[in-house]
Design a protein that fits this description.
By secondary structure, the protein is an alpha/beta fold. Helices cover 26% and strands 25% of the residues. The chain has one domain: Spore Coat Polysaccharide Biosynthesis Protein SpsA, Chain A (Alpha-Beta Complex), CATH 3.90.550. The strands form two sheets. Strands 1, 2, 3, 4, 6, 7, 8, 9, 10, 11 and 12 form an eleven-stranded mixed sheet that branches. Helix 1 crosses helix 4.
């Protein structure tokens, strides 16, 4: 069975100012999603599952509905606030989505084998999909063998403002030990810092390994994530801004000995759009890759 690809495309992109998922960035009008699906298919992935919000369905399908027909098997699932484990109701004043781990969990009915997870608005590069496809194919469905593609923090910053990144530590064999979500990371006076809960800037190694949300899981992940989600909901039912992130799940499973997560090296370079000012950089990068013959134009 070919691994599936779950694409997290439910975010509205508030800092960017619009639907990043459908923004034309490539020389032939391609979106970043186009490049991700193109790379995934040639790397050996099978079905693609897009996680979106119901209110963007029309815009999303107007762009991609016909584009992938006959080229990729794909499904669309919705991430909505009231999609919770049995026994839980969404607080009436909750407006913020539940987070990336919730977005993955809502796809549990569509994914039955090993699968990868990516963000819709990040460009990961073909080699990242290649190493992930090879890793997921080699698991043989064994439970708890997870993977993550790692990138260097300094190569994932934006000149336009602060970003959030999951900072990782690994053992000598390349297995993930800890992963901590840090918000408001930016370079200040040539030093990379994040802002802690007290509003203080704390220096962090710019060569630190970070997750850009390119994960590989076996299907046991869904049940385990659901169990952790239930505890999360009990502990955070009064916090309308609390988010259930993938690193929280992975950390918990590693800590309890229920999973390992191998960090996969890649020669690919990441880039993405967080702010409007990032767009010209991405457009230039994609144009250069096309000129270099890495991608055809038009892509499909």
């Amino acid at each position: 069975m070919k691994p599936a690809l779950v694409v997290l495309a439910a975010g509205m992109g508030s800092r960017y100012g619009g639907l990043k998922q459908v923004d034309s960035l490539g020389p032939g009008g391609e979106t970043i999603i186009d490049y991700s699906v193109f790379d995934a298919l040639r790397a050996g992935f099978g079905k693609v599952v897009f996680v979106i919000r119901k209110h963007i369905e029309e815009d999303f399908l107007n762009v991609f509905g016909g584009r992938f027909k006959g080229k990729a098997q794909f499904e669309v699932v919705f991430q909505e606030l009231d999609m919770l484990p049995e026994g839980f109701d969404c607080p009436s004043d909750r407006e913020k989505p539940w987070g990336t781990a919730h977005a993955v969990w809502v796809a549990h009915k569509q994914v039955k084998g090993p699968f990868a997870v990516i963000n819709a608005d990040d460009f990961y590069g073909y080699d990242a999909f290649r190493v992930m496809a090879e890793a997921l194919t080699s698991t043989g469905g064994e439970k708890g063998n997870y993977y993550m593609v790692g990138y260097r923090l300094s190569n994932t910053l934006s000149d336009q403002g602060s970003v959030s990144r999951a900072i990782c530590t690994t053992d000598d064999s390349g297995y993930l030990q800890t992963i901590v979500e840090r918000k408001n990371i930016e370079r200040i006076n040539k030093v990379v810092c994040y802002r802690n809960d007290d509003g203080e800037h704390v220096a962090v190694d710019e060569n630190a390994l970070v997750s850009m949300n390119f994960w590989g899981f076996t299907p046991d992940y869904f049940a385990r994530a659901k169990e952790i989600f239930r505890f999360f909901l009990k502990d955070n039912k009064e916090d309308t801004k609390a988010e259930f992130f993938i690193p929280l799940v992975v950390n918990e499973l590693i800590k309890n000995g229920k999973a390992t997560c191998k960090v996969l090296p890649t020669s690919a370079e990441w880039f993405g759009v967080t702010y409007p000012g990032d767009k010209p950089v991405v457009v230039s990068e994609l144009e250069q890759l096309t000129d270099d013959g890495v991608y055809p134009s038009p892509l499909w």
